[in-house]
Design goal:
Length: 182
């Protein structure tokens, strides 16, 4: 059975480092045997169809292929269409009322528990807030991610150590749901 997935690449094409042209990303995905490939933006979002049913194995194969092609490591997460739609639907914040730059989802390679973030005094960051979801974290940052003190605190090593994590703004979250809809 063929499943539609999104590949979320972490930390590429930022400030000229780890350059991965989207045309070459599409080629890599094709060489891995995937079909229906499309990329979105230059920041490492790709949609593809695959007969594979193991997201972690698909991500590992993509990471290895990117390393062979470009000579550097790129952390990747692969999530199926159903998961992406469920994350969007479960958003604890009023996404329809917010600008895309105000709401973000950080996708994790595995589930995280509240203990990881227990040292953060939530009230100290208001009106910014975060909530944990299924292998993700929702962040409301009314002034945007670049000015967010909470985002800065959440990214500290003690909070993300040992995790593969990558963040997308709500516009990208919604577009990936749209692109992976069968």
């Amino acid at each position: 059975m063929t499943t539609t997935y999104a590949a979320l690449l972490r930390g590429i094409n930022v400030s000229g480092s780890k350059r991965v042209p989207m045309a070459e990303l599409r080629t890599v995905l094709t060489e891995l045997g995937h079909t229906g490939i499309a990329t979105y933006l230059q920041s490492g979002n790709a949609v593809f169809r695959s007969d594979g049913d193991d997201e972690n194995a698909l991500a590992t194969a993509l990471e290895q292929a990117l390393h062979r092609r470009f000579g550097f490591t790129v952390d990747c997460l692969v999530r199926d269409a159903g998961y992406l739609a469920a994350v969007a639907e479960a958003c604890p914040f009023p996404a329809a009322e917010l600008e895309g730059r105000q709401l973000h989802v950080t996708y994790f390679d595995r589930a995280v528990d509240t203990e990881r973030f227990a040292d953060l005094e939530a009230g100290g960051f208001l009106p910014e807030e975060f909530r944990l979801g299924d292998r993700c974290l929702y962040l409301y940052a009314p002034d945007g991610l670049g000015r967010s003190k909470l985002a800065e605190a959440l990214a500290r090593p003690r909070h993300v150590k040992g995790l593969t994590a990558t963040t997308r703004n709500w516009n990208t979250v919604a577009k990936l749901v749209e692109l992976t809809r069968d």
